[in-house]
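Subject: Predicted fold for Nuclear transport factor 2 family protein, 136 residues

User T.R. writes:
Posting the sequence so we have a shared reference for the thread.
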Amino acid sequence: MAFEGSDGDRLAIRERIEAYSDAVFRRDADAWIGNWAEGSTWSLPGIEVSGRDNIKAAWQAAMASFPLAALFVQVGSIAVEGDAAAARTYTQEVLTDPNGAVRRIVGAYDDELVKQDGRWLFRRREYRILHDTAEG
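User M.O. replies:
I've generated the structure tokens; pasting them so everyone works from the same file.
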């Protein structure tokens, strides 16, 4: 998969990925879930959650464990075909726990997106950890 599709669609998908990351930094659950389509699925190591309400609740529970959650993203590919798209995004996360211990994770998302009412939204995000380091 490479970069395929119109510039406008690929830019809108990049902006969706960046809005997701921004919502994590700001810990804004409403903005974060606003990136997801109805009937979407979030797949993480050991867990798969479907439906926006369930996805939002799982994210809020996970975020409650970290006083700091920073998510940096790098788009690896975007392929648009009509009103559907596939993307790959690499991530760097910095997480702190309540005791100040730091966890650094390099990961990747394989994404399926759908264009609804002129907006690109995540239909499925499948995350995998590529490297995980804990400090302190």
